[in-house]
Amino acid sequence: MHIRTLGLLFGALATGLTAQAQKSIYHKGWTDFNKNGRRDVFEDVAQPLEKRLDDLIGQMTLAEKSCQLATLYGYGRVLKDEMPTPGWKNEIWKDGIANIDEELNSLRETPKALTKYSYPFSRHAAAINTIQHWFVEETRLGIPVDFTNEGIHGLCHDRATPLPAPIGTGSTWNRALVRQAGETVGREAKALGYTNVYVPILDPARDPRWGRVVECYGEDPFLIAELGKQMVLGVQSQGVASTLKHYAVYSVPKGGRDGNARTDPHVAPRELHDIFLYPFRRVIQEAHPLGVMSSYNDWDGLPISGSHYFLTELLRQQYGFDGYVVSDSRAVEFLHEKHRVATDFQDGTRQAMEAGLNVWTNFYSPAEYITNVRTLVNSGRLSTATLDQRVREVLSVKFRLGLFDQPYVADPQRADKIVHTPADDAFALQLNRESLVLLKNDKGLLPLRKSQLKNILVTGPLAAEASHAISRYGPSNNPVTTVLQGLQAAAGPGLTVQYEQGCVALSPGWPDTELVPTPLTAAEQVGIAQAVAKARDADVIVAVLGETDKAVGESLSRTSLELPGRQQQLLEALHATGKPVVLVLINGQPLTINWADRNVPAILEAWFPGPSGGRAVAEALFGDYNPGGKLPITFPKSTGQIEFNFPFKPGSQAGQPSAGDPNGGGRTSANGPLYPFGFGLSYTTFAYSNLQVSPRQAAPQALIEVAVDVANTGPVAGDEVVQLYLRDVLSSVVTYDSQLRGFERVALKPGEKKTVRFTLRPDDLALLDRSMNRVVEPGRFEVLIGSSSTDIRAKESFEIMVK
């Protein structure tokens, strides 16, 4: 059925509109949104953006303006109707709405939101058109809706292309893949009718206890900025807005606590700018996202969503952001309820709008917030100028998205052809492959050689688990290949793959059992004994351990980073059989697996992979794929070391000599990381040579060119992530010991050599001086090239000169 016919059919069924009534506002090349029978300036695509905005805002009433400042959550959350009804004429959105979030997307975890309109994909596109028709045709000015959705694991929609968790994506260190991920999310969003995707998360994961580490690209601001930039460019290349999360200083609440805490980050001013704001500044300046989500925490007593400094001075005036700011859910309410800087919700509304917030969001009707805005303006407590500016910023995005030129999905049927294609599955598999990090491989246990094996035992609570592959913030209802299924499919004839769970991921009484250990129950002893019995008959054991989505994620911070439940006891019992053990980790944050590191010969980090993760793991274990990912986050040895991360100030993470140093001696702590930032092994080896830095003397605004040769000196093809770190030898303020300032993932065949090139820009050399001005100071800089932050293979220097 043609788009126009299908759209009219849905519209007629839902609202009783006649075809003639619809046709009357649609003309060749323009739409009569305000239904006045003439082509207004705002309806004319040939007019400059500012004139179109002036014209439209000049026609709007307070009721209509206020409605452009709130989110309406979609069906099953706030909306009770799948399609428009006559009753919508009595709702607050009768005068329009800024955006509708997650409309008709059918999430696994929200049964009340299941809908027949989510799939086939063309049905969703047509349904979105029907809803858009209602807002265009049934509101006075016909202002189109911005349809928003989440997208950090792939587009958050029924059966869209599923991607691994962002912490896995960060482990790829592959800009091209992240750009393609953004293009995939943007293409699918556009085809399905979404116009704005909440992606990427740019929060540096500096405290591994924090539950949302799994949703971050890592701990280092440069890595996050580089990957986040590519995600934004990819999404917006498809004509869809990208909205950054969560601005700002969101990811280090006091003690790493999530849930009802998520506040009071202990962050110094320079750390604020150099670590937590750095990714936002760079991505905004270099990729120009159309959206930013403001967070609900404070910094130094300033609630972010009520802070003019954060939302206007930094974001718009310094960084040049020109899109609209949407609040995280309940951020405005928290100004009163949690932060206690507002007398009530209405006062919080005023503070947020004056600070620079554009659109309020929460999981209930927007009526109260919109009423707050109207009351504030009518009473004079909120100026019309502020109101108009906030509305202008929202409408500017809608104009730039083309919603006033073509508010509908042009060809709904096309969605069935371009959303979640076989090519998308192949891409998602490659992303899962490249996210794998080999942490240990003593005596070349991996890859497993099928011809030398007859019986493999796959065990552990994550072996047959699938929940980690389906995120609240990603696609639902896709089939998942577990690690067990992946190994069974890849084993081939003559190789038996047995399975025994051994234990559950989270034992009864957990996490209290991490505070006061309890004896194993009879059932737990039996479970481990059954796994051990099968292990004795196996040639090799693959233990799949870690965390489920019930242990890590939003609101799920941890106080320990040990393997949860009885998994450590299972691992020790398996090791005691004397059979070789391969540990596969499925987890969302670094784990303090010290015993495993000392006793288990091979460890593969898989993070929370997507649905094809089981196949990717099997390929890596059997040698069909050579893992080449690198850690985007430090693994501490103990939670007692936290904070322990990269980059760090000189000496701040140094060890303690046992004697001989009157200022630093004393063996009282565990020193050093378990696995450092940037670490990852391979089934092959790489050699570095011929590091060149040019020029060796340069002016502060010069570009510094760096080149190094990297060769595969081993027996198999593999990927190496070449990492460039920069050290400021002498500076006016204390800077980081070294900082990541370049990386490149390079695929090399055995014996192959490639030259990897980097360009250092002035911004890469800059620091915040004693007056908090960002400057490039004269002096010597060291270029450190290596395979991780601690495995430096080559070093050279250059000098910045002043005239």
| CATH architecture descriptor text of the largest domain | Alpha-Beta Barrel
Average pLDDT: 95
How many discrete structural domains?
3
DSSP E strands, number = 27
Rounded to the nearest angstrom, the radius of gyration is: 28 Å
| Helix proportion range | 25-40%
- Terminal residue distance: 71 Å
GO biological process, one term: xylan catabolic process
Keywords: Hydrolase, Signal
Protein name: Glycosyl hydrolase
Family: Belongs to the glycosyl hydrolase 3 family.
Gist of the model:
Helix content is 31%, strand content 18%. The protein contains 24 helices and 27 strands.
Describe the structure.
By secondary structure, the chain is an alpha/beta fold. The longest helix has 18 residues, at 121-138. A seven-stranded parallel beta sheet has the order 3-4-5-6-7-8-11. Strands 12-17-16-15-13-14 form a six-stranded mixed beta sheet, with helices on both faces. The chain is 31% helix and 18% strand. The model is unreliable at 1-19 (pLDDT under 50). α3 (49-59) crosses α15 and α18 (483-491) crosses α23. α8 links the parallel β6 (196-201) and β7 (241-247). It has three domains: 60-418, TIM Barrel, CATH 3.20.20.300; 436-628, Glycoside hydrolase family 3 C-terminal domain (Rossmann fold), CATH 3.40.50.1700; 686-800, Sandwich (Immunoglobulin-like). This is Glycosyl hydrolase. It comes from Hymenobacter amundsenii.
